Amino acid sequence: MISRQELKKLASHTLTDAYFVSLYLNVDPKNNPKDDWLLHFKNLSKTTPANLPAAERQQVNPDIERIEKYLYDRPSETKRGLALISCAARNFWWVYHSMVTFRNDMVIKREPYIKPLMQQIDIYQRYLIVVISGEQVRLFIAGMGMMEPVFYVTRPEVSFDRTRDGNTGDMGELRAQRKKETSERMMFKGAAAAIADIVQSEQIKRILLGGSEGARGRFKDVLPTQITVRVAGEFTVAGNAAEKEILARAIPEMRKVEEQFEKRALEELFHKISIGGGGVVGLSDVLTALQQGNIRKMYIISNATQPGMVCKRCGALTPPREHSCPYCDGEMQKAPYIFDHIIQKGIDQGVRIDMIENAPELVKAGCIGALLRY
Ligand SMILES: [Zn+2]
Questions:
Q1: What CATH number corresponds to the domain at position 299?
Q2: Could you tell me the CATH number of the domain that includes residue 106?
Q3: Of 364 and 156, the one with more pLDDT
Q4: pLDDT tens-place string over residues 18-71
Q5: Which residue has the higher pLDDT, 114 or 358?
Q6: How far is ligand 1, taken at its centre, from the CA of residue 213, in Å?
Q7: Is residue 210 in a domain?
Q8: Which residues, including other chains, have CB under 8 Å from residue 326's CB and lie 6 or more apart?
């Protein structure tokens, strides 16, 4: 699970004398029955450099070559989406495997092209997972079936002067206990500050607390309200559990929370439609509203695909049609994955987009719906 901070850092590299080759591929086996993505890469590697000034095209040859070698070796970590940024001239190489597909694209610029990654982060709900024990607090960002550590803090060492405290009986024990409590509180406060920072910089709306019930309870005592309001769920796990186990426990909890949010959101959408305004469902009506710039929020079934058309001249999107563009009479081009184009256009218009996992009613209505601005 990549972070916004990491992406911003990545994008801050700018060169004056060399290029970054940024490649995005849909490597989902479902869409690539015969490793078609290799072919997509081949095509992109011919067409994209052709846009560079003739004298500079050769500069990216080493990048194309090493990307090709990497892809033809069939990287074993491949999931559904692959992002790759290369600048051979600076010996720069960055790969990201995503549980979510990308639209096939190659961009060659003086800086890394990160827009598809940023969009992925913004569209898919991410969680801050906090695993608490008396000894340490660990923070992870999770979403899209993946999880990555972002921060941890351990309890400060309790200095226990045995000569002063005396190693004799209850008083020493009690003092040691108090010191331990104080240092735990310090650690919790440090973690709370880190959570506030991360929630802000990563724009994360939902937090899950993991750990023993006791540790979670003590931790909640030190959390400020602006953080507690984001706690969407809790789960029990050992404080020192392996990441794999934490993720396995967190996933059902995230799913439960998402289902509740989705259910409420869709109730609102279908209620608006039933009272005759404020919402639309189905490809055709959503596309009309999108063309009018009238969508406030969009809901899309996350694994749905539908074909559509894109106007070559004005970029308008329509359901499959035989005729020229209804808006400018331009020539229409088939778009096998029209939802990708809808998401892109929605993002460009500042539309909030929610990918929905499980909603039979929305599937029946065409896998897409939208709340309108006016
Ligand atoms: Zn048009």
A1: 3.30.1330.30
A2: 3.30.960.10
A3: 364
A4: 999 999 999 988 888 888 999 999 999 999 999 899 888 999 999 999 999 999
A5: 114
A6: 59
A7: yes
A8: 316, 318
Alpha carbon 250 to its chain centroid, in Å, reads 16
Instruction: Evaluate whether residue 155 is within a structural domain.
Output: yes
Q: What is the pTM of this model?
A: 0.73
In a domain? residue 264: no
Same domain, 291 and 353: yes
Same domain for 237 and 142: yes
Q: Which domain holds residue 134?
A: 127-259
How far is Cα 98 from Cα 113, in angstroms, rounded to an integer?
16
Q: How far apart are CA 356 and CA 205, in angstroms?
A: 16
Is residue 72, in this structure, part of any structural domain at all? yes
- Which is nearest to 83 in space by CA: 19, 70, 195, 91? 70
On whether both 99 and 149 belong to a single domain, the answer is no
Could you tell me the distance, in angstroms and rounded to a whole number, from the CA of residue 345 to the centre of ligand 1? 14
Query: 85: CA distance to ligand 1 center in Å?
Result: 33
Boundary (domain end) residue, out of 123, 148, 179: 123
- pLDDT tens digits, one per residue of 135-145: 999 999 998 77
From residue 168, alpha-carbon distances to 159, 163, 177, 188 in Å are 17, 10, 14, 30
Does one domain contain both 139 and 247? yes
C-alpha distances out from residue 272 to 28, 266, 369, 371, Å: 36, 10, 11, 8
> How large is the C-alpha radius of gyration of the chain?
25
Residues 297-351 pLDDT 10s:
999 987 788 899 999 999 999 999 999 999 999 999 998 878 888 987 887 788 8
Does residue 116 or residue 122 have the better pLDDT?
116
Q: What is the whole-number distance in angstroms between the Cα of residue 44 and the centre of ligand 1? A: 25
Residues 6+ apart with CB under 8 A from 41: 23, 25, 67, 68, 71, 104, 106
How many whole angstroms from 371 Cα to the centroid of ligand 1?
24
How many distinct structural domains can be found in the chain?
3
Distance 165 CA to ligand 1 centre (A): 82
Residue type present at position 326: P
Confidence of residue 212 (pLDDT cuts 50, 70, 90): very high
In CATH, what number is assigned to the domain containing residue 196?
Answer: 3.30.420.60
Distance from the alpha carbon of residue 310 to the mean position of ligand 1, in angstroms: 8
